[in-house]
Amino acid sequence: MNYLLINASFAKAGNWSSKLKPRISTYPSLALTLLAALVPPEDNVRIINEEFEEIDFEEKFDLVGISFLTPAAPRAYEIAATFRKKGITVIMGGVHVTALPEEAAEHADTIVVGEAETVWPVLLNDFKNGTLKKRYKADGFIDLANIPRARLDLLNKKHYVTINVIQASRGCSFGCEFCSIAEMFGKKARFRPVEKVIEEIKMMGKQRVLLFTDDNLIMNPPYARKLLTALKPLKLRWIGEASWTIGNKPEILKLMQESGCVGLLIGFESIQAQTYTKKISRHKDMREAYMKTVKALHDHQIAIVGAFIFGFDNDTLSTLDKTLQFCLDADIDIPEFNGIIPYPGTPLYRRLSAEGRIFSREWQKYTYEPPGSVFHLKNMKNEEMNKKLKSIYRDFYSYKRLIPRLIRAFIRYRNLEKVIYLFIIFLGFRKKTRFE
């Protein structure tokens, strides 16, 4: 059997201009590499990331699997239609399929709802026996002790900064209104045995940098301490994601530095009072608390990519200006400024739908690039927020700020290689200042 697994392209869905089409990604998604690892050894499997590689629709495959996020849905449906016209069976899965299974089912022979690892071997066996069902859904979530070693060898290295990626946990107990993680992977965090994580890292061999794809590596402090302690002897350099509360965990911060952490993505989201989760109700300005976190990370030689979202119901245009000033004052290494998006499957999508505020379900518009909004904001006009969003991007990533920032980064980190990486990322983010 010959199988083809595809990550559908955002760009070909029509939501990036050609000048913004990426030439390289930071890291690959693990989803298809994990499914590829479950394909029987007697069968052939290929992975194509359509953002960088062309699909040869004339090539012969027995089965095609397509994974995609919401903005790539139109392109995924085009790909599926082309293969199905040739009589090739098409399977679809991923976050969008899980959120809108009835829609996806119209474009595929079979859909997979939720985590695919437990049902994928059954699906492939049914396909070989001619008993393929229309829908597969796992009974619960997979025990992370049972996930296979990802087939990273199937990826084209030249398309990524690194393919050395690994996952230690899934799920999130925060349940933020705008986030699909809890909906897709569960509201209770699950953890992979530390021993298995370390074993897989060792099998990767020598590497420049390792990336953890976990959405919040410090969600469970006891687990984080055990994992970080086990990483120390490996003498790695790694990057990952954590919540802003890392600033209140000095012991874990110290372990992060000792284990080789060189950078973290922190979801700051908003600097002002918000109530967007059941567990996090921000009743005060968060500037002081965030400043503490930024300082703590910098003191431990950890660079910061800070993610900020605009368009909450109590946001105004001044919120964007205040956020820009905070990033300048705190000297955040790389800030991301994005408009909030009500992805299907999220509580935000359901609430805004019930309120009649969503005015577009053209999925290619559900993206940060170019920025925009697909629902009516409360205290701003959509075009006003988009104009302001462009303005703060252009301000922060202007060349006039580049040299002073690089000098401060070198003084802070005393590491030329890290400063060069920050420079490259800075230039990459400048592309966002050119969106239409």
Distance between the termini: 45 Å
CATH top level assignment of the largest domain: Alpha Beta
Spatial arrangement of strands, main beta sheet: 2-1-3-4-5-6
CATH fold-level label of the largest domain = TIM Barrel
Beta-strand segment tally? 16
Looking at the overall shape, the CATH architecture of the largest domain is Alpha-Beta Barrel
Number of helices: 15
Q: Pairing-aware structural class of the strands and helices?
A: alpha/beta
Mean pLDDT: 90
Largest sheet: 6 strands, parallel
Give the strand content.
15-25%
Low-confidence stretches: 16-20
Describe the protein in words:
This protein is an alpha/beta fold. The chain folds into two domains: 136 residues, Rossmann fold (3-Layer(aba) Sandwich), CATH 3.40.50.280; 271 residues, TIM Barrel (Alpha-Beta Barrel). The chain has 15 helices and 16 strands. It has a six-stranded parallel beta sheet with strand order 2-1-3-4-5-6, with helices on both faces. Helix 7 runs parallel beside helix 8, helix 11 runs parallel beside helix 13 and helix 14 runs antiparallel to helix 15. The longest helix has 15 residues. The N and C termini lie far apart (45 Å). About 1% of the residues have low confidence.
